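Task: fold both queries, return tokens.
Query 1:
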Amino acid sequence: MKGVLLVNLGSPESPTPKDVKPYLDEFLMDKYVIDVPYLLRALLVRGIILQTRPKNSAHAYAQIWTDEGSPLIVFSKKMHEKVAKQVDIPVALAMRYGTMTIEKGLQELKEKGVTDVMLLALYPQYAMASTTTIWAMADELVAKKFPGMKLTKVPAFYNKPDFIKTLANSIKKHLEGFDYDHLLFSYHGIPKRHIRKTDVTKSHCTIDAKCCVTASPAHEFCYRHQCFETTRQVVELLGIPEDKYSQTFQSRLAGDKWLTPYTDVEINKMPVKGIKKLAVVTPAFVADCLETLEEIAMRANEDFKENGGEEFFAVPCLNDEDEWCDVVANWIEDFKKN
């Protein structure tokens, strides 16, 4: 019997240092997130980061927390419910980190008689720190606890026509009536070495102006290429002129060389360049979360205006929009038929 497991990032149980600390420990100790040897990772995470960051992160989470809970969890659950109602095979929801574990999701499906699982990581673009860690955890769990269960991993959907159309329609709908000077596509950043590590050719990804627009097998697992391609296809569909949009990367950690240009740096420069009305879309996320709500809608908004900007609009993620839920339901129907 076939079934589906939808997986997103996860969230602390509450916006308190007490709950944020174990969540951050699980997240940052993941070898696919901070990909250095274990002892160095433990020293960095437990010896340095976790001494101060839980308090700061808890404050950030508190800014976006709702009566229903974490926005990422709330929106993911609503999307899951809508999708599940449209299909006639079991659909479970899990998170890579936190208490809504992948193991619980697989167990729920097993109890319903599922032996063939469509594993959909809810990230449009492939990355080691998002897609790979979900796939690896699922593989490990199947080998240890769910023998005989088959996993069908859905590839990154960054360029699937139905996803691009849905994203473009959502952006257009939300920006109706907002006469922006510039539309910024802000993607979650990753260290440059992650790009090189996932380069199947071991030579293509030079991370310059050429590699992402030069055809290569490396693009199947190249986060940077996939971000640029999502942007290219969306602006083409919406007819946005080249001088009215740009692309950046957000949420970097200190100490590494991360993908550039940086979102915060570029946003702060924009008012001086005459950009007074800015819209920002975050297409690396399908559900609003800390990075979209606190980092962009709050902090970037504030910084933009402090530097001379006048109007700022953070475009919501797809969340539980009907068109997005329809797309996912259609992918499930295709899986069911094959």
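Query 1 returned. Query 2:
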Amino acid sequence: MTMAYIEFREIDKYYGSQHVLKKLSLSVEKGQLATLLGASGCGKSTLLRCLAGFEGMQSGRIFLDGEDISQKDPRERCIGMIFQQYSLFPTMTVGANVEFGLRMRRTPREERKKLTGEALRMVDLHGMENKYPSQLSGGEQQRVALARSLVTKPKVLLLDEPFSAIDAKLRKELQSRVKSIQRETGATCIFVTHDQDEAMRMSDVIHLMKDGVIEQSGRPEELYASPRTVYAAGFIGNYNLLSPEDCARLGLSHSEGAWAAIRPETIKLCGVREGDVTGKIREVLPQGNIVRYFVDCGGVILEADTLFDSAVELRKGDLAGLLLDQSQIVHPAWE
């Protein structure tokens, strides 16, 4: 059987009596950008730190490129890591920060300069070698940290919520840059985030975590369109989650005894007489070019997203019909 580039096999990790990772197994292919997505405390950063060698495990094994690295010293694993904190040396220039890892490896001076220049060009910071971290913006400092991790050509690059302290516009720019560099270099990356939108934009594959286990894995579009569990549907895609009782109230008889989930953008607002169900607008929430309506349908609150149209504006208290596309309703398992 062919082994994946990275394999976690039945990883158990405790902090005292707290069972953080529970017989967790997953694999990452070479050249893939895989994202660990989940709420705070689900174990995603702990798993990353186990791979890097910063945390020990109670049981389980980790393989990298066919080699068991479970007991290897972190310095021998050939893994780069970028944290939320930039962790740059304040008294060193940008160039010295980037080439620090090469110095530790005793790389010859001329090669250090060449590789440092290449890494800085990759993150669009060429010519800033002599500046200090205090002279850079937050986004520039994060790019220095990225260059420092890339310059040693690690087998795997780990990114632990690296953009969470950066403003929204710059965050999107850095997301695009990292994805572009990853494609250009063919690097294998594992990205950690709690932000589903970030995961959808960045990932080749998403591993959704819950309470120390993998809840669901797949391509972003798979998790978005076909959540297998109620938790996955609630975490990705902003689904309307409908209990069996809710389904009965809405007349979804084919869903009797099962949970149902439907995305807000698949619900169409229309006239009262044309709708599958009728409801009263309880709240209107503008979201840029999208308007989200919260509609009370006999005690069941449905969220419906529409493109902003000033000519068609429903207000709080208005009655509206809702068209429910039956083909868009999924039935996740309750777990």
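Both queries returned. Flag for query 2: The chain has a mean pLDDT of 91.
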